[in-house]
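Example 3.2
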Amino acid sequence: MGWELATAFQFLTRIPMPSTTFEENSLSRSVKFFPLVGLAIGSGAALLQGILTVHLARPLAAFVVLTYLVLITGCLHEDGLADTADGFGGGWTKDRILTILRDSRIGSYGAIALVLSLLARYLLLASLPMERFTAYIISAHVLSRWSSLPLSYFLASAREQEGQGARIARLISFPSLLFGSLVSVAIVIFALRRSSVAPLLAAPLLVALSGWFYQRKIGGITGDCFGATNQLTEIAVYFCGVWIA
């Protein structure tokens, strides 16, 4: 179990981890711990916000927190969002979309999606009520990492044994899905109490809609699509915090 958690941190973050022995199913077995990685990332952001808030204005503190979030994940999810926007924005057929998704260059759709994502997160982080900041940022990062569980459980890889998506798509077990989901729900309810209803409804709805879209367009999912849904879920939870406040 320890090496599975280490694999999850190693894949999703730039945090140094002890050397682990990778097996063919290492990543798929670690997916159930993705929400715990989100808990650690969100907790770090909350701690940073607490330190900065007495020294900097809210907009500057939000900028530093957002920079931390980008750096600690190595832009993993941002890259996925940009590639997904380019693929689905510029491609009309499955083959064309998958070809664009494989291209490492960023296009106009990807650039616009990336700018809008960063801007939305910055504005929402700066607008979250201070007394609930910790609860919402932790919930956002737990639920955004949780999004990979149902997507990888229900959707097959759009490509055959190729890319990061193929390493987890349709390869996680129901017990893993159940474990990760129960842990995520417990953390969000503990953090937000009665305010947890909106994020716990918004996240599954967004995952279901994005999963339906991926299935309809390319017949499955890719690693970039996981990143795109992650980003959208994070934004949705922040929005719930600002909207409810």
